Amino acid sequence: MRKIRKLSFDELVSENKKALLKDAAFLDKIEERLEQRYKEEK
Questions:
Q1: E strands, 1-42, where?
Q2: 5 secondary structure, DSSP code
Q3: Mapping DSSP to helix (H, G, I), strand (E, B) and coil, where does residue 1 land?
Q4: Counts for the chain of helices (H) and strands (E), in that order
Q5: CA-CA distance, 20 to 14, in Å (whole number)?
Q6: From CA 27, how far away is CA 22, in angstroms rounded?
Q7: InterPro entries in the record, alphabetically (predicted)?
Q8: What single DSSP character describes residue 3?
Q9: pLDDT at 4
Q10: Whole-number Å distance between alpha carbons of 15 and 23
C-alpha cells in the first residue's frame, strides 16, 4: 500500500480557520452593504 501523506491535524485546523475567516469577512462586507442600502432607503 502506498503511503499518502495526510495533513496533520494542526494543518487541517489552520486551513479551516483560514476558510472561516474568509467567509466571515465576506459576510461582514455583505452586511455593511445591506446596512448602507437600508439607511439610504429611509
A1: none
A2: P
A3: coil
A4: 1, 0
A5: 10
A6: 9
A7: SenN/SenS (IPR025004)
A8: P
A9: 64
A10: 13
pLDDT value at position 20?
96
**What is the per-residue pLDDT across 1-42, written as a single tens digit (0 to 9) for each?**
576 677 798 999 999 999 999 999 999 999 999 999 999 987
Residue in this structure with the C-alpha cell 455593511, named with its chain if needed: 32
Single-letter residue type at 19: A
Q: How far is CA 29 from CA 20, 24, 25, 40, in A?
A: 14, 9, 6, 17
Prediction pTM value: 0.59
State the Cα–Cα distance between residues 34 and 26, nearest whole angstrom. Answer: 13
d(CA 3, CA 26): 38
What is the sign of the dihedral through the CA atoms of 9, 13, 18 and 19? Answer: positive
Please give the grid coordinates belonging to residue 34: 445591506
